[in-house]
Amino acid sequence: MAAPIQKIARTVDGGQVTDVDALKPLLAVVADHQDSLEQGLHLLGELSDSGILEALTAMVTAKEKIAKIAVEQALRPEATTLINNMMSALGGLTKIDPEMTGTLLNGLAQGLEDGRKSVQNQKKVGLLDLGRALNDPDINRTLKFAMGFLKGFGKSMMD
């Protein structure tokens, strides 16, 4: 007759130990970046609440269709003309002195404000007013600039 079993040997699944060990570095990273992760999760929650996350998910899912539409739109003659014009404009802007651009934009803003105020005045402008305006140093400076601009612009049109 066989001997009765006295001991039961239980085997421990080694997979659980390796899973826990594998998670330790991840837990350390989570602990080190807790604030950033909380902010990221908060951001995801806000994006989800506003519907933006759903829209982004749909866009990623339909990326091939969206890319096809974008390429079709970019190949339209109007789009290529727009892109060419933008490239030419940006190339021209690289030739302009940034300080002069700032001066011109400040002058434009001031001129628009002063022009708005002067239009509110109902008084008509006569020939004598124009003649007196030529003696105003601000108007004279602007006219000199405009004449120089027109001369340079005209020269460039012949090139």
Short key terms for the protein model shown above:
159 residues, mainly alpha, elongated, DUF1641 domain-containing protein, DUF1641
Rg on CA atoms, Å: 37 Å
* Helix segment tally: 8
Got a strand count?
A: 0
| Global shape | elongated
Structural class by helix and strand composition: mainly alpha
Order of helices and strands: HHHHHHHH
First-to-last CA distance: 116 Å
Classify the helix fraction into a percent range. Answer: over 70%
Indicate the proportion of strand residues: under 5%
Stretches with pLDDT under 50, minimum 5 residues: none
Estimate the mean pLDDT confidence: 89
Main β-sheet: number of strands, strand sense, barrel status? none
Polypeptide structure, described:
InterPro entries: DUF1641. This is DUF1641 domain-containing protein. The structure is a single chain. This protein has 159 residues and is mainly α. Among the domains are: 19-60, no CATH class; 62-95; 127-159. 80% of the residues lie in helices and 0% in strands. The protein has helices spanning 14-32, 34-50, 52-61, 63-74, 77-93, 98-120, 127-133, 137-158.
